[in-house]
Input
Amino acid sequence: MKKLVLSVIICLVLVSLIGCAAPAAPAAPEPTATKAKKTYADMTLCYPQLGAESDWRTANSASIKETAQQLGIKKLVFSDAQQKPENQISAIRSCIQQGVDVIALPPVVEDGWDAVLTEAKNAGIPVIIVDRSVSADPSLYAAHIGSNMKLEGERAAAEMNRLLPNGGKILEISGTTGSGAAVGRAEGFRAKLNSNIQIIDTQTGNFTRAEAKPVMEAFLNKYGTDIQGLFIHNDDMAIGAIEALKAAGVKPGDIKIVSVDGTRGGFQAMIDGWIQADVECNPLLGPQVFELALKLMNGEPVEREILTNETVYYPENAAELLPSRKY
Ligand code: AHR
Output
């Protein structure tokens, strides 16, 4: 009997030991920690603005600053490169060192960005190209937001064709040499201009009033007032050219002017009879830039090319629209 009790006890001990050694049932999986979505409050965005050359640019800077404030982003690193690409490159390098989340770059010219864009890419910082285009390999940036500059040039040509149905000689004051805006507008304009209209000269006014005025003065000295049209790449330069035309005794409408931007100054020049058509280029890009930047911070897919919807403005309704113009 004693033996039986002992063997039962041994059996029970063994069973309990084997039970302990038996593999544990698989544990219920830990709930995977979902990565918290980043918000605007987490965002540091770098905006190395290219300059302050025009009313368009002033409005673009204001749109970026106001939107950053409205959305409550953590920090906006804003600088003004004074139309010098080398200043923009230094500003981008400083932003990379600061470890910003996103860089939004409005490039002064198309070429020369490969090295610094590669540095941003290697640092894991996405870059949005804003406003003008770059010639760099598209793999070096995440997306482009801005206007279709070639289409703007085409629209300007359609207006010049309408204004000069019998053809004529025209002059062009172009934007900054090598900038996406000047290159695209010049190309689109030439592609659609009627063959009976001849561009007899083209000079840059660097998108500023101050530089366009002497260009127009030099044109007047060289060609006199026997020209039928002017294609001017922005309203600031048109205003500078108009000053020179006034000083030379030219009357509003004597020479047909097609300009670009649609600023308040451009609208006033249409009301005064100087500009006959103003092709819109919209600088209010802040909301789109920040929305895209947040998507990039969260690793969401984004559209690579976001083009702004634009139109053409005319003197006929300029007075009515001027009070509601935001830039
Ligand atoms: O890139 C946009 C152009 O730059 C605008 O037409 C001009 O006004 C600005 O300086």
